[in-house]
Amino acid sequence: xxxxxxxxxxxxxxxxxxxxxxxxxxxxxxxxxxxxxxxxxxxxxxxxxxxxxxxxxxxxxxxxxxxxxxxxxxxxxxxxxxxxxxxxxxxxx
Length: 93
Prior knowledge:
- The chain is globular.
- The protein has one domain.
- The protein is built from two helices and five strands.
- The protein is an alpha+beta fold.
- The chain has helices spanning 31-37, 39-56; strands spanning 5-7, 27-29, 62-67, 76-80, 85-88.
- The relative contact order is 0.30.
- It starts with a strand and ends in a 5-residue tail after the last strand.
- A five-stranded mixed sheet has the order 1-3-4-5-2.
């Protein structure tokens, strides 16, 4: 399965007070996200978010990736809460 996940622009601009998340908490993924994308692409996206958060001193709590290889397929979301970072599909929300 080929996936080409590309990060969407976040809702708030970098530097906004709501951009205070670094995606450093433990990563969990829903079964649907694992089935749709597999663990390796999920880990790569998670790492990309961590690096981007360092560069910009934080990100919005919710981030989304689209799959250019499957434009009609689901997006891959990442949401950081008080305990974990969750990789999920929009239908999991």
